[in-house]
What does this fold into?
Amino acid sequence: MGYTRKIGFIAFVSSLYAVLTIIPGYLSFGPIQLRISDMLIPLSAIYGYPACIAVTIGCIAANAFYFISWMDVAIGSIANLISSLIIYRMRKHLLSATIVSSFVIGFTVGSYLWLFFPPLDIGIPLHPSIIIGISISASSLLTVSGLGYILVKTLMKTLPENLKKL
It folds into this structure.
């Protein structure tokens, strides 16, 4: 298939990512967040680089919509790109890849998000970036390693071969 199908796929997935991030509102942003849209990141295990590009563009759009800082738009999107590339490269070990990528997202976003939100007081003397990193990693484990893993495994079993290729 040609570039048209890949561009259409990128447009669809990036739009879906942005919508699934923006509609839940503040549930998708902040030191405690649950980005349902992150379940799309493991699609790179099936669709490769177009999926990596799509979740990066979708993250840029969503983070620009709920603008916290240019850091969030840039670094958060880079975290998605790196995570989706990890999943693509480790696709034969999908569960391990999604777990690793969840921590990449959590601690990358946690490294700067604490600058914009008051630190969570959990009674443990840890730097706020570590606390937020743990929080976001936990939510990413639910969405990327949980929902995303199930999504990809289901698609791999049910999609006809011609729809697994772009």
